[in-house]
Amino acid sequence: MKNLVKHVQDVNSQKKMWQPTDVIIVGVSGGPDSMCMVDVLRKIAKKIEITIIIAHVNYGLRGNDSINDEKLVQKYAQKYEIDCKTLVCEKKSSGSENEWRNIRYDFFKKIAKTYKTNKIAVAHTKNDQAETLLGHLIRGSGLQGLSGMHQNSNMGIIRPLLTVARSDVLEYCKKNNISYNIDKTNKDTIFMRNRLRNELIPELIKSYNPKIIDTLANTAIIIADDQNFLESLQEKFWHEKDNGITFSANEFLSKHPSQQRLALRTIIEQLRGSLVDIESGFIEELRKVISSTKNKHQFIYTKDLKMMKNNDTVEFMKMKTNS
């Protein structure tokens, strides 16, 4: 890519990730993707007067490597006189990807609140989008999961590099002498995403489709458009009640199966705040129970959600967790 900075500016003209005078919290790990992103945003900031604040999380999981990442990010911030906020985790994480993600985003949101902004930039690339789509497809997902990550989410999360290939990121870093560190745990095949990145996708590129990254990323865009269209047609038939949501099973069953699935995902996301760990198999199990003609109380539980069906009445409740 000849001019990555211009490309990101052009994408922003369409997606409206930020406006002049916005304050953006930029998550920087020290890896090539985030170092590229912060440098691109720094150059854009000089042109349109946005303000960037660097946020870095040191999980303390990789010894000296974690320390070196922190030093690298702070050195960059000092060089360009950018405010840098760092979280050093005192308590070592259990190693759960979701736990790390929660720690990271909670920290970003805390900083955003301090600066009275909701703009948080993260460095997902087109490659990450392809990996996300593949992962959701393998585990089982509906349209929402297959639509992948969004360039500009309604939660304030923006992804300036989502249309940029990792190869272009590395080229940019080399051309502009941007230092970065490589996280050795990216090779650890205990994580599914690493297996996709290091094993499955290279095999797909070699044996099936040399442009599989572009194909998957473009597919996610098409599915996201379809998902948005369906959402625009959705009519709310459920009601909030105390700490739950209730609706008529017969009214639910009068809807098209696509509308049923969308409604269930919408309800679950409203109660839980996210659809993390909600796979298509669970949605289909819910539909099966709701359509059951058995004249008795029926229940489905997850660790933080309960659905009850009693004759025509269906009720969802958020469960309290100890964690």
Explain how this protein is built.
- 50% of the residues lie in helices and 15% in strands.
- Helix 1 packs across helix 2, helix 5 packs across helix 8 and helix 11 packs across helix 12.
- With 323 residues, it is an alpha/beta fold.
- The protein is built from twelve helices and ten strands.
- It has helices at residues 4-15, 32-48, 64-79, 97-114, 126-139, 143-146, 166-175, 192-207, 212-233, 249-253, 257-272, 280-290, and strands spanning 23-27, 51-58, 84-88, 119-121, 157-158, 239-241, 244-248, 298-301, 305-310, 313-318.
- Among the domains are: 4-123 and 160-182, Rossmann fold; 239-318, Uridine Diphospho-n-acetylenolpyruvylglucosamine Reductase, domain 3.
- The protein has a five-stranded parallel β-sheet with strand order 3-2-1-4-5, with helices on both faces. It has a five-stranded antiparallel β-sheet with strand order 6-7-10-9-8.
Q: Strand sequence of the main sheet, in spatial order?
A: 3-2-1-4-5
Quaternary state reads single chain
User: How would you spell out the order of helices and strands?
Assistant: HEHEHEHEHHEHHHEEHHHEEE
Give the N-terminus to C-terminus distance in angstroms.
45 Å
Count of strand segments: 10
